């Protein structure tokens, strides 16, 4: 026989409702992604939603209220007689996120195993990973009085059966090879918290997997093939889906009926406390992804500075560099703004986490929530401090980018001004040359016939005795040639004089 009675397994699951800068279309997808766990008829690709499906989602949209702290959106209960399971689903809106609480409990004592309870919940939500995080909470009453060591052993076996793997830490040699199991006290019972760290790569895989479900125009990643998608789902279920467990073992002598109200109040506090916890971890993981992108762009900026020094005299290359730098500036500004947003998310939710932790003491003044208080310290000393440091160290990149763009624009403007100045000088020289040539032509036209008469005797002629005849075309040609020569000479002198000026 299992040493527990009144066994209940709960899943606290959290999804993003509205992210910073998301469009209405993205928010609609977030709504679909959450509600498809609640309704079987929504468990289909987003593009395959029927008008009836969309109408159902619109009804939920009308129930949402971003101004409210919490809004209950739907409630469902039922049973699976063949499995001996009764269940309750509660869907809520918590500000900019959704929450789904699923209770599955053994309605016929000892008929259902812990692993069967978990399997039922996973199948009920279609094995869809949450976008913000999730926590498994097993609670029940011990069927007798046990030593602290035995209670630890029961908790370990319970975790091993639910998670289907051993505890995520090694044995403590100082305690006769017994597992060191951190515990808390709540309503007279032992509360164990089992946490596993999730890598940034797993969080990014989750983003890719969710992105793959989106319509084409909302995607940021390439489409996955079926094999790659299956591998990602498996990896995410083994990491994000199993990263946080709570096991709460109440003593045999406590009266659960008399404690019913207090237990419900504790679960309400867990609902909110866990939402703050998961948003802190989620925001930190997103900050790691943003930091990597910002660092990559920062390195690109530094390379651009060197490139521009080499290309400052080539207008075409500078124009190309300006367009590229403007694109980097846009991406850098967005990512830096989102990094600051993640810092604010951590700060706000950490404050809320600490305040909510104090509420447990109002229900049970003797509670000891050591590991929960340790998470608060970790979030402040590592998560919040690290993101703040990253934001401060990466912010100068924005100034460098802006100065770089101003420098490129300045060089381009100077080159443009120089080209315009050279063009103006050329026009001025040409104008003087043409004007001088025209004036010369007018003056020379009156004397061209006399000039030709004077030089005619020196030209070769067949009959020296005949009087010279001056053809009008000769007069015009002479006038044109002389005026062009004068115009070219004065135009060149003007151009040389203008270009010899300083600046």
Descriptive report:
By secondary structure, this protein is an alpha+beta fold. The chain folds into three domains: 1-197 and 243-258, no CATH class; 268-394, no CATH class; 415-456 and 471-499, no CATH class. Helix content is 58%, strand content 14%. It contains twelve helices and eight strands. The chain has helices at 24-35, 51-63, 114-124, 148-163, 200-212, 226-239, 260-311, 315-363, 370-394, 396-445, 448-455, 472-499, and strands at residues 4-16, 71-80, 85-94, 97-106, 133-142, 183-186, 189-195, 244-250. It has an eight-stranded mixed sheet, with helices on both faces. The longest helix has 52 residues, at 260-311. The chain is elongated, with a radius of gyration of 41 Å. The N and C termini lie far apart (98 Å). Residues 173-180 have low confidence and may be disordered.
Could you list some keywords that capture this structure?
8 strands, 3 domains, eight-stranded mixed beta sheet, elongated, single chain, 503 residues, alpha+beta
């Amino acid at each position: 026989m299992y040493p527990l009675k009144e066994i209940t397994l709960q899943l606290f699951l959290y999804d993003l409702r509205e992210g910073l800068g998301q469009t209405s279309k993205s928010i609609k997808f977030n709504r679909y992604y959450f509600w498809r766990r609640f309704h079987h008829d929504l468990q289909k690709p987003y593009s395959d939603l029927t008008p009836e499906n969309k109408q159902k989602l619109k009804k939920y949209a009308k129930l949402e209220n971003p101004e409210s702290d919490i809004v209950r959106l739907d409630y469902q209960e039922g049973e699976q007689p063949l499995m001996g399971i009764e269940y309750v689903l509660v869907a809520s809106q918590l500000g900019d996120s959704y929450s789904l609480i699923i209770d599955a409990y053994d309605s016929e004592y000892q008929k259902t195993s812990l692993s069967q309870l978990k399997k039922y919940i996973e199948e009920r939500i279609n094995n869809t990973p949450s976008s913000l995080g999730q926590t498994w909470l097993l609670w029940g009453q011990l069927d007798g009085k046990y030593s602290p060591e035995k209670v630890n052993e029961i908790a370990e076996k319970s975790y091993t059966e639910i998670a289907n793997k051993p505890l995520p830490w090694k044995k403590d040699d100082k305690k006769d090879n017994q597992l060191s199991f951190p515990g808390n006290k709540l309503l007279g019972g032992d509360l164990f918290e089992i946490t596993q760290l999730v890598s940034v790569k797993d969080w990014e895989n989750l983003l890719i997997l969710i992105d793959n479900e989106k319509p084409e125009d909302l995607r940021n990643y390439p489409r996955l093939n079926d094999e790659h998608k299956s591998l990602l789902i498996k990896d995410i279920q083994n990491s994000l889906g199993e990263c946080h467990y709570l096991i709460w073992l109440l003593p045999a002598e406590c009266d659960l009926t008399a404690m019913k109200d207090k237990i419900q109040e504790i679960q309400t506090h867990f609902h909110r406390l866990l939402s703050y916890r998961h948003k802190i971890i989620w925001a930190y993981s997103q900050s790691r992804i943003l930091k990597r992108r910002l660092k990559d762009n920062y390195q690109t900026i530094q390379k651009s500075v060197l490139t521009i020094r080499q290309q400052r005299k080539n207008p075409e290359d500078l124009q190309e560099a300006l367009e590229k730098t403007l694109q980097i500036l846009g991406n850098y500004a967005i990512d830096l703004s989102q990094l600051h947003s993640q810092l604010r998310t951590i700060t706000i939710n950490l404050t809320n986490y600490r305040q909510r932790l104090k509420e447990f003491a109002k229900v049970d003044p003797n509670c000891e929530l050591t590991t929960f208080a340790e998470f608060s310290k970790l979030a402040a000393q590592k998560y919040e401090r690290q993101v703040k440091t990253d934001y401060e160290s990466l912010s100068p990149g924005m100034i460098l980018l802006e100065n770089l763009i101003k420098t490129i624009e300045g060089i381009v403007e100077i080159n443009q001004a120089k080209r315009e100045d050279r063009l103006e000088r050329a026009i001025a020289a040409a104008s003087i040359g043409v004007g001088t040539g025209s004036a010369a032509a007018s003056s020379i036209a009156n004397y061209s016939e006399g000039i030709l008469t004077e030089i005619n005797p020196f030209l070769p002629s067949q009959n020296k005795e005949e009087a010279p005849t001056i053809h009008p075309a000769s007069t015009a040609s002479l006038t044109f040639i002389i005026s062009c020569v004068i115009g070219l000479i004065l135009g060149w002198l003007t151009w040389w004089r203008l270009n010899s000026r300083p600046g």
